[in-house]
Amino acid sequence: MACTNMDLSPVDKAASGNWFNNAEQFEMCLNALLHHIYWPMERNEWTEGEQIELDLLTDDGTNRASLSRFLTDGVDGSFPLSAQMWNISYKGINRCNKILKMLPAAKDNMPKEKYDMIEGCARFYRACFYGRIIAHFGDPVIVPEDMDFDLDEDRERAYDLTRSDRWTWTDWVISEFEAAAALLPERYSNTEVARATKGAAYGMEARFALYCASIRKWDTFGMANADEAARLYGLAAVAAKKVIDSHVYTLHPDFGNLFKMSTKNSPEGIFILPRSKSLSAENKYEYLYKGATTAKLSRLSGAATCTTCCPSWDLLCAFYDDQGKPIDESVVYDPHKPFEHRDPRCTYTIVEFGTQHLGVIYDPHFDKPEVWSYREGKNVPNNDSRTYRISGTGNQYASYNGLVLKKHVDDDWLSPFEAENDKLILRFADVLEIYAEAKIELNDIDDSVLDAMNMVRARAYKADYTDASAYPKITSTDQTELRKVLRAERRMEFAWENRRLYDLWRWRIAEKTLNFANYGLPAKNEKNQRRYIDNNMWFHGATPEIDDDDCPHFADPVASGESGFFTSGTYAVKLSQRKFVAPKSYLWPIPTTTTNVMKNIRNNEGY
Amino acid sequence: MKRIILILLSLFMAGSLLHAQGVKLSGQVKDASGLPVPGAYVFVTGTQNGSVADIDGNFTLNLGSKPGAGATLTVSCLGYSDQVLEIGSRTVFEIVLQDDSQMIEETVVIGYSTIKKKDLTGALSTVGGEDISQRRTATISQALQGAIPGVTVTRSNSAPGAEATIRVRGITSMTDGSTDPYILIDGVPGSLSDVNPEDIENLTVLKDAASASIYGSQAAAGVILITTKRAAKGKSGISYSYSLGVDTPTRMPKYMDAVSYMDAVNELKYNDLPGSGWYQAYDQALVENYWALNAANPDDYPNTDWMGLVMKNQALRQSHNLKFTASADKLRSSVSIGMDDVQGLYKVNNSWKRYTTRLNNDISIYNWLTVSTDISMVYVDKVSPHSSPALKMRYMPAIYPAVWTNGNYAPGKDGSNIYAALMSGGEVNTDTFKATGKFQLEAKPIKALTLTVLYSPMLYFSQSSDFQRQTPYYYKDEFSSQKYISEALTTTLDESRGWRYAGTVQAYANYQQTFAGVHNVGAMVGYENYYTQSKSIVAGNSDFPNALIEDLKAGNPSTATATSDNVYELARNSFFGRLMYNYASRYYVQSNIRCDGTSRFAPDYRWGTFLSASAGWQFSEEPFLQPLKKIINNGKLRASYGELGNERIGGYYPYQSMLSVSHPVGYVGDSATSITGYAQGSAIVPDLTWETTSTFDIGLDLALLNNRLTFTGDWYYKKTNGMLIEVPVAPVIGLSNPYDNLGEMHTKGWEITLGWRDTIDEFTYKVNFNLSDDVSIMGDISGKEVISGGKIIKEGYEYQSWYGYKTNGLFQTQEEVDSSPTLGTQYPGDVKYVNIADAMGATEQINAEQDRVVLCSSLPHFNFGANVDLYWKGFDFNLTLQGVGKRNGYLSDYMVQPLRGQVYNFPTYLAGGNSWSYKNTVQQNENAKYPRYSWVSGGSTSTMGNYAYSDYWIINGAYLRVKNITLGYTFPSKWMQKARVKDLRLAATLTDFFTFSHYPVGWDPEVGATSYPITKSAVFSLSVKF
Question: How far apart are CA B262 and CA B112, in angstroms?
């Protein structure tokens, strides 16, 4: 009766002691960082429980009559998005640190190109994560690369780590992107896993540098520094230019098509991750499901718990007309027909009334109790309208402001409401706009600036950017005018791509626009809805003033039309009131799980 | 054993006795109920002259000569007390033997041996099998509620087959699963749910270290020993019992009807956006005419009673138990077969069936060698709904239609229809099979020495198939639909197959001898090893052309997935020993040692040694107390000290740094490809080892006034060192929290049991009361704090104290809000938080870092149980009460938050002026119990707004429950004998029928806010013995 052997090791996992020897093992460590959970944007990518899209924290979106807690000054250290963004970024940082720490010892076991690529990827990812920490939380905690958390003493030391001044580390992050770019290849062969490229490193560097530059320029809470702003804008412009000049990336020819689920690995993609349901057997984060899709669908998609994530009226009114003018200056815009004579990106982003969407005619008009369903080949009750003419609760939750999202959403999203659109973390159009913005802010406006902006705009019109007759070409070289156009371009081009929150933050306009109210249509009520229709207010009875940041001012006197349309309560309905406290809300709170154990960490001001 | 030898001897000599001459003695041996006792051995005391009673209990005994004056006859039979009668001049004897069950009860199992109860020096409690089966619960854990002092049993639901949580003497550890007591069934590790309550002979809880330390590393959370019934020597018979029960919820919260809901939502919307008027969500005309509209057109204007649709009014359960026992010379065998069928309260797919069989054999090969072979098999067949309706049936508002008048499923809320999900959305079938064997060899080479070797394999197999059936919903008047409810959007199947083996080998020797009549010595040494291995496979498919065939094969083969799960091994080796000595059954000492090694820790930190010692003083045996013998029948003072270990932490290889595999998706060329990723997930602590709990216990046992009054009291102090804590690492290191031997915990507690029993003529009554309390205070945990779910673990405070904000009522006016610190933006009618930090000169805002404090204890205190038993003629009556004397209950946001999650219904108790409202008078608002209806101030998380963890929501959680009322009647045996029935009893039992608590109307003090209800039961039972 011998003793049972007690030296047991797991049979379904790898032990770290015999790992980190060859390129394949390091590559598998890099692979683990490609999980979507490291790059959270969509509802199901935050945590097990569904969270929210970043765009619902901005003025581009509404959820019926309620607001995300971030928009009511209601977040604290338990804010799940904040906790996950912090935790997952540091998880990524430490995995990169581990790779970088172990890599030199394996130098002789792999070819130099592999070695450089592995090092470059790890430094690139780490720089992205630190950049994100700085953008969301301000002063970062820098984790020394040589710490070994399998040792008690280093784990203990970690509790004492503290936050460092973000401006001290900004240049380090930028230099890491630079270093990574030097190590990374321009592209990968058809048999290799597509990892970070030189272009991705320069592109993300440009984005980060621009972010920091903007705060240095626009902040009014003590961080403004004109010289620093100029220096950082310069870095952003140079990095973006390198991407442009590499000629590796091109704009996708069709703007609308770019966001479809069937469009894979577009040449516009600089840093993109594919999604796949069939390849994500045990990992629910690798595709979109449940609320990540249904929230963006209209009622007649047949999805449950749908239409909770809609474009706002602010966004609808922010699109220029097809002459390249904001609607308050437009001679062609008619608020009764809000989708006519608009920049084409308007109807690629928001579903135009009366068009086919997800197999049915989408029309929220109160006098359309039935619409044609192509899917069923018959008229069906129009649950996409909150009309009083449908009894029961079937249409109770149709879009409260009549708008539903088109971008990303196509027929492939229909039942079972699972989607695998590519995740576009960085696309070429963004690099062009970053370049243009940096140069505008440097007041170094040349043809390259106008070309960059015009290429993006012309693509939306499916026009050649040199052909001024085919689209409203941008021609001004005035800094103020161009800044105004650039902000509108960014809003139109990148709506619902998770960029808006960062733009609001870095331009320091969130304190303005995120204190505006959200407006919508009257709820199911014959009197109110009849008054709306019969007094000829559909869809809007007035055109709001649009300011130089491309934000509509509904609460101010209107540019034209019924003067009390938005605010009197007679027609449009105030759905909710956003609240943004500056400077507090320009950063997220450090999660309580961190401040609970790291006593040297002070939370951001106001939290 | 002595008696067995005597019987064997007598059989051998029977032939010669027939030829003897002289006096012939004869008679019949019966038991107390008048039935004959076959096999009783009757002999002249002090001689080998004897005879065995025949099948009718008759015996004849020929004596060679007339017995001398004072000669006596001894009658002996296993299971009965020996009886000695003077022979005198009698030749015919009517002998009535008394059952010696009293005597058997007096022996208790103490781990690798048994001991007479009077010789105990540790703290343990024993419950008879009868007391457990009479509670008429399908699971044993539920039957233990209130039965044993120091044993806290809590439930959160009564779902079919649900087990309750058992805690022995508070909490001494914080690791996963390690607060569950160690369960041994006939000496072998097992689980309570494997045992049919009817198979239990008795159940013993080892509470102090001296009793439990023989189980070393497994014993820190207490040990429960179950002894199963075996066939008694000379007894054969059949018994059968049947019970039929009706379960109904103890209580269920009520939610608002359609109109009240719409009013409430309108008020909430008004509160959050006052500028937009009173009727923001539901039109005034609609709200005011709703009942008329509903009467005319219930499809468009529904008032859905979700709970009523989903639940039955009552559910039935029944149990059959059949048992055969037979005894021959060398073989005793007991076979029992049990079947429990428990139906749940959900209308479909809700049942739990358990089939148990147990075969216990004792084979005497030689008079010094016995073999026992026990085989027990359990099969559980459980069906539950694919989507549990527990949450949504409570909270779904009444304004959403569940089913149209034409019978089609309606969209419910936005396509979420829990009624359709329950009825058509699929089910989870779980089958578990478990077979446990125990093969034991017991040899007695010399009288004082017993050698035991045993091997016990456990084989476990489980399969579950979770089938989600795509369920369409329809718009009104629609007859075809491609819209599916959110609970069952597609047809998917998730299958799993699990397999586990566990083997226990034990070898031990027991020595017991008395020297010089007063020096009683006992010793035991032994070795044990345990090895377990587990594997399972998880497979699934999400592409099925139809929802009819629940099989993987019916799905699209290209979308099938499979992976492994739960793959682990664990091994332990242990050496142990015990020494016992007592002088004249008056002074007792005992000590134990156990040395355990486990694969869970690194080789250098693997072995732990656990020692204990105890002493007892049976003062009632002291000569100087003999004059009081009539008053103090029994009195013993006990003291013990010992160490116990715990290794039960999450994970099987916690000291090894590991890289887990994952499968992200990446582009290879233009094709999305599954790529393999490896990364370390958890931080590790290489020198991780046991946590050790030292316990000091003193106790007093008393039996007074002719054994009518009994008292047992214990006081103890436990200290856990090197407590395994999941240490929150600095999140910036990006690894999940490891376990480390960090903490210290101090538990003080006491428990008393008081009993009185007496018989007046034919009336016997027993009253028992037990009460216990324990307080676990955290010691040094290296300055760490663990905060989660509104509770904190912090040095100097009770384990898991409530942690949150202090409050001071509700804000009544805007001026009050403006002049007070607030948590974010607040309004009149919101909870007013107390600014703790300001006292220390910090910020004016209420915030999580500075203003949360330890509020109060969250654990139950003063657990009590009480029993009254009455017997009169054939009637028996039992009343059992159970409760918690002091506990701070918490009203979770599920119970009190209006429009929780922006969807859920309002409980009715929020209305009627109970919530702060603009509709109330100033005075009503001053007395309002609940804050105003608001989403902005309500919050989606439990850290912000009115429902942040705070003392506002702490209530008196004490409760008293009438656990059991049983009335039984046993028919007189003389009526039954003709039908060869020995015993027939009928009984009616009410379980959990009455409860008294301070919880809001409809909430059971034990029930989880989103769990299956706690049920009460009425059970009718019949038991018969042949």
Answer: 66
A25 CA: distance to closest CA in chain B (Å): 8
Q: Rounded to an integer, what distance in angstroms lies between the CA atom of residue B115 and that of residue B109?
A: 6
CA angle, residues B46, B47, B51, in degrees to nearest 5: 120
All residues of chain A having their beta carbon less than 8 Å from the beta carbon of residue B677 are 28-35
Tokens of B48: 């080998």
Cβ-Cβ contacts under 8 Å, A22 against chain B: none
Q: How far apart are CA B264 and CA B261, in angstroms?
A: 5
Task: Categorize the per-residue pLDDT at B9 as very low, low, confident or very high, splitting at 50, 70 and 90.
Answer: very low
Query: Strands B223-228 and B182-185: what pairing?
Result: parallel
Nearest to B638 by CA among B209, B243, B965: B209
CA quadruple A259, A265, A266, A271: dihedral positive or negative? positive
Give the residue from B489, B732, B902 with the most A CB atoms within 10 Å of its CB, the best one to mutate.
B732
Q: What is the pTM of this model?
A: 0.81
Phi and psi for A441 in degrees, rounded to 5?
-65, -30
Residue B249's H or E segment, with its range, is strand B237-249
| DSSP calls for B179-220 | TSPEEEETTEE--GGGS-GGGEEEEEEE-SHHHHGGGGGG-T
B696 is written with which tokens? 């000091």
What are the backbone angles phi and psi of residue B1023, rounded to the nearest 5°?
-135, 140
Q: Phi, psi at residue B42, to the nearest 5°?
A: -115, 125
pLDDT in tens, A134-193: 999 999 999 999 898 888 889 889 999 999 999 999 999 999 999 999 999 999 999 999
Whether residue A14 and residue B661 make contact (CB cut-off 8 A), yes or no, is yes
In order of A7, A14, A522, B97, the CA distances from B657 in angstroms are 15, 9, 60, 67
> How buried is A572 (Cβ within 10 angstroms: 0-12 exposed, 13-18 middle, 19+ buried)?
buried
DSSP for A333-367 reads --TTSTTTTB-HHHHHHBPPTTEEETTEEE---TT
Q: Quickly tell me which residue has 């994530």 as its tokens.
A: A309
Contact B559, B543 (CB under 8 A): yes
Tokens at B507, concatenated: 């070898």
| Inter-chain residue contact A306 with B527, CB threshold 8 Å | no
Q: Which three-class secondary structure string do you get for B851-895?
A: HEEEEECCCCEEEEEEEEEEEECCEEEEEEEEEEEECEEECCHHH
The answer to whether the CB of B532 falls within 8 A of the CB of B570 is yes
Output DSSP code: residue A3: P
Report ipTM for this prediction: 0.92
**Calpha distance B496→B500 (Å, rounded):** 13
Spatial CA neighbour of B322 closest among B332, B334, B312: B334
Q: Cβ of B489 and A76 within 8 Å?
A: no
Q: In Å, how far is A212's CA from the nearest CA of chain B?
A: 23
Average pLDDT over residues B874-878: 91
Give the tokens for residue B259: 């109109």
Give the residues across from B30 on adjacent strands: B36, B96
Q: Tell me if B401 and A194 make a contact (CB, 8 A cut-off).
A: no
State whether A193 and B729 contact (CB < 8 Å).
no
Enumerate residues 6+ apart whose C-beta is below 8 A from A273.
Answer: A34, A36, A39, A422, A423, A425, B665, B666
CA–CA separation, B555 vs A117, rounded Å?
42
The count of C-alpha atoms lying within 13 angstroms of the C-alpha of B275, restricted to the half-sphere facing its C-beta, is 12
Q: Which amino acid is at A57?
A: L
pLDDT in tens, A501-531: 999 999 999 999 999 999 999 988 899 999 9
Angle at the Cα of A241 (from A238 to A247), degrees rounded to 5?
150
Q: Which chain B residues are closer than 8 Å to A518 by Cβ?
A: none
Can the peptide bond before residue A326 be classed as cis, meaning omega within 30 degrees of 0? no
